[in-house]
From TrEMBL:
Pfam families per UniProt: p450
Keywords associated with the record: Heme, Iron, Metal-binding, Monooxygenase, Oxidoreductase
PROSITE patterns assigned: CYTOCHROME_P450
Protein name per the record: Cytochrome P450
Transmembrane segments: none
Annotated spans, Disordered: 1-22
Record field: compositional bias (Polar residues): 1-10
Organism per entry: Kitasatospora cystarginea
The keyword Metal-binding is assigned to this record: yes
Superkingdom as given in the UniProt entry: Bacteria
Amino acid sequence: MTSPEQNTPSPGRCPVTGATADEPIPLYGSAYKSDPYDLYREMRDAGPVHRVRFPSGIAAWLVTGYEAAHQALNDPRLGKNHGLGNDDWRALASIMPEPQHSQLQVHLLHQDPPKHTDMRRLVLDAFAPRRIEALRPRFQELADSLIDALPDEGGADLVQGFAAHYPFQVLAEVIGLPPELAARFDRDWGKVVQPVGPADPGRPVYEGRLRGLQTYIADVVAHKREHSDDDLLSRLVVAKDRRELSQEELDSMIFQLLVAGQEPVTNQISTMLIALLRHPDQLERLRDEAELPPRAIEELLRYDSAFELTTWRFFAEDSDLHGTRIPAGDSVIVSLCAANRDPGQFPDADTLDLDRTPNAHLAFGHGIHFCPGAALARAELQIAIGTLLRRLPGLRPAGDLDELVWIPAVLARGVNSLPVAYDKRI
């Protein structure tokens, strides 16, 4: 494999567009969100590190390519705590207003050791593979119940009718969210992770969602304090009462569970279905399999990862990253999608190969921030995709897949609507 340093662009200049550091590559717009892979290919070919800009105006350094991404995800110099961000980053990136930024943004994704180690330990048992395997029959019941509610024949929107609900129902079972509280959860609250700047006309709605979610989290904490049980939410409340967590850390961890614990899986179901609908021969093959091969799910995760980019990382001091000088406090982001399509790691990387092995994709990240819910996500995806293919024979697009509207989220890939047709629900 070619060393990233052998192909590094000159610092301060983008090899794709020729732009200087003051003109970063834009990572937004409908064309980019629909299919970012041509741009990622150009960036990978030119070098591993690029200056980019997001729709809110935030500039960052983007890492592309498998080897460079793998190294960055394991680089102990790169911290996740927002306190490491410099003034330039903070002026644009701290979009969530106070007090919510301080109260909801100190979860696992924004912590470094030793605090990260202690907080992560609190959630690992709930997502342990052995526990997830024991819950599979219940996950299957939930999937079947949602499909039972779809029209008998003709078609449906598989996001609105299935993918938008299934991951949250599973999550509620796993973390111990009681039915009465689960029924109150508003999926629109999850949109608080999408950037809405202070001058955006949608800012009042955004801030209303934040307040609604914060009130909901307070109600969850109060309920679990009064009705403690042997579940993750109860254990987190107990940890706060034992002073292992601050109130802000408790609220942030519940925030992370409720949002990061479901939206990525919703989006991943949609990207997997779109990939299969674009490859009907592969869809038919999987439909006829008695058990959906785990390797097929791994390949679908690699082929179009719903968690497109990682969250911010920072150097505490000016540092070299694959030949590019990164100022202290500038944000560094890793493109998981670009890494997962690197032909240096994956032969015929742009081909959907359901038999691909080995398949060391980075869809769940790597290193100490590897997704703690990976085993749960894999089980959900295997059950969701396998059940949809089995119970909706003749599954096919109900329109032009090229006209799907992709969500404008900075870090994620997915759609809010996926109309399909099928012969008859079984």
